Amino acid sequence: MGNSRSSRHGARVTNFLLHTQEGNGTAESLANYLNNPDNSVSYHYTLRDGIVCDVVDTDYASWSVLDANPFTINLCFAGSRAGWSRAQWLEREDDVRIAAWLAVQDAHKYGFEPVVIPPPYWRGEGISDHKYVTEELGIGTHTDVGYNFIWDRLETFVNEYAGGEPPPGQGNAIDDAAAAAPWLGRRLAEGEIPTPDGVGRRAEFENGQVYWHPDTGAHAISNELFGKFAELGWEAGPLGWPITDRTVLTDANGARLGEVQGFQGGALYLRYGAGRPPVWVHGAIRDRWNRSGFENGDLGWPIADEQEFDGGAYQRFEHGTIYWPGRRDTVALLGNDGPDTPLPDGD
């Protein structure tokens, strides 16, 4: 391993990203090039023909994706090109399997979701490519590995290594999720209910339901959040499948303030005692709110879903409003009554 790296500055790793070399190198020759800091580029791994080179320790950031470096792990398929056809990628299927194994191991190590995020993409934790950073995060202009990549094979391999559907005799993901969530109470019926897509499964309990899909694993949804989940069309709606467990949020003294759960298409927040239903936060407005400090920031808790407005959207919070004008930039204003005060981004 060389020194073509930087500190992560405390950032949590959330994504494993794939890249093409746009050249004809081997894993070793590309690693040698990346190990020269003067070249100002690096990846954590290079891979070709069953050979993996560790170039940068994953505890550090590689020089791969500009502002996304602190929270990503990056692997480059040596001797590959973004313009390859599906048939050309299938010739490298064994390397894609190795990449999937590495991605799942790092997902377990750093605590992010071992979920594949293929084109047309959605923003979240998981395994994707450089084009995801360009299109979904708005960083840079790269288009690798692109649409012709064998995303379906990658997903199959990731599910195999992540253990989305347990092999016979190794337990059941829904049962495991229920055991980890005793607040669910007793099970209302034996067995599992197939979801409309024919792939996922769910099970009903006194105080919630557990949803399982091979891409996202099994996660319990409380009855309080489930009503909003149903209102938005269940897993077939814009929320998609749950990707994190329900988390109860507390204050410094341990008092329970509310709960949150992450889904493929955003998050649901419920504030206890507020007399309002769960609120859906997603997209650019959610990102801006996150940067302000979530519910502990100046804006406080969300109090209503996002509303369309003049080609963009806005969302109200306890102490202000975030506007998204239909472009990348958002504007946050403090004060729901009287004069509004702009809230600097990141404060």
UniProtKB/TrEMBL annotation:
Molecular functions per Gene Ontology: N-acetylmuramoyl-L-alanine amidase activity
Positions of the N-acetylmuramoyl-L-alanine amidase domain: 1-146
Enzyme Commission number: 3.5.1.28
Class of this enzyme: hydrolase
SUPFAM superfamilies tied to this protein: N-acetylmuramoyl-L-alanine amidase-like
Coiled-coil spans in chain: none
Family matches, as SMART domains: Ami_2
Domain of life: Bacteria
Protein's recorded name: N-acetylmuramoyl-L-alanine amidase
